[in-house]
Amino acid sequence: MCGRFTLTVPPDELLRELGLEPVSHFAPRYNVAPQQPVLAIAASGSGELRTGTLQWGLVPWWAEDPRIGSRMINARGESLGSKPAFREAFDRRRCLVVADGFYEWRKQPGGKVPMRFTRRGGEPLTFAALWERWKPPEGPTLHTCTIVTTRANESMAPIHDRMPVIIDAADRRRWLDPAANGEAVGDLLRPCAEDALTGYDVSTRVNNVANDDDGCIEPHTPSPPEQRSLL
């Protein structure tokens, strides 16, 4: 799954590659959590790309209660075409969520150790995502998204059995193409290459969503489990 991620570097180069304007007033994020705004790229019906923020946690257009979004931060790629909450968005409302790393927790004696995974070269990541528009009886329209996951590749599998779908540069426009339905882009819902990512341990500060500073991404050596004498 993907439950926390980072965007600590300005995504300007990535946006320029896609013909988009740099994001003004960019503020680095070190511990992005569900229900918070995330930077996303989507296409209009005519195919024009645009950037904006979406609330992380998908609220289907037909939902009666927007709180359902807290349970829909991720969508399994294997079932996008069959799940009512994702089927229509998979065909018509695909987007990319921009990041430069994501967190996962490694199990070990004494508790879980958080790890941060990034591209080996430090370049931004683009996660496959779906977006929705939810209109309440009163008040502003809510725009939300979910990050698509797939089975873990061999290097990630010892840490977790799922990972976000990372769309490579060559496939970004195809994923966003409004003329393509879900079936046409289904082959992109796969794990990334084995050598694409590198990971390292970070502090348990990331466990608290209130912590959102560069200390969250600093490499950290976990303390060894406490040894108790049997005598």
Overview features:
hypothetical protein yedk fold; five-stranded antiparallel sheet; 231 residues; five-stranded mixed barrel; globular; mainly beta; 4 helices
The best one-word shape is globular
Number of strand elements: 12
**What's the total helix number?**
4
Measured as a percent range, the helix fraction is under 10%
How many domain modules? 1
Profile the largest sheet: 5 strands, antiparallel
**Strand numbers in spatial order across the main sheet:** 2-1-7-8-12
Radius of gyration: 18 Å
Secondary-structure arrangement, i.e. CATH architecture: Alpha-Beta Complex
Mean pLDDT value: 94
Structural class: mainly beta
Q: What is the C-level CATH assignment?
A: Alpha Beta
**Termini gap:** 43 Å
What is the CATH topology? Answer: hypothetical protein yedk fold
CATH superfamily: SOS response associated peptidase-like
Would you identify the regions where 5 or more consecutive residues have pLDDT less than 50? none
The H-and-E topology, N to C, reads as EHEEEEHEEEEEEHHE
Strand content: 25-35%
Please provide a written account of the structure.
By secondary structure, the protein is mainly beta. The chain has a single domain, classed as Alpha-Beta Complex (hypothetical protein yedk fold). The protein contains four helices and twelve strands, in the order βαββββαββββββααβ. It has helices spanning 12-17, 87-92, 172-176, 182-185; strands at residues 5-7, 29-32, 37-43, 49-56, 74-76, 94-99, 101-108, 111-119, 125-134, 142-151, 162-164, 197-201. The strands form two sheets. A five-stranded antiparallel beta sheet has the order 2-1-7-8-12, with no helix packed on it. Strands 3-4-10-9-6 form a five-stranded mixed β-barrel. A hairpin with a 7-residue loop joins strand 9 (125-134) and strand 10. The longest helix is centred in the N-terminal third of the chain and has 6 residues, at 12-17. The chain is globular. The protein starts with a strand and ends in a 30-residue tail after the last strand. The model has no long low-confidence stretch (mean pLDDT 94).
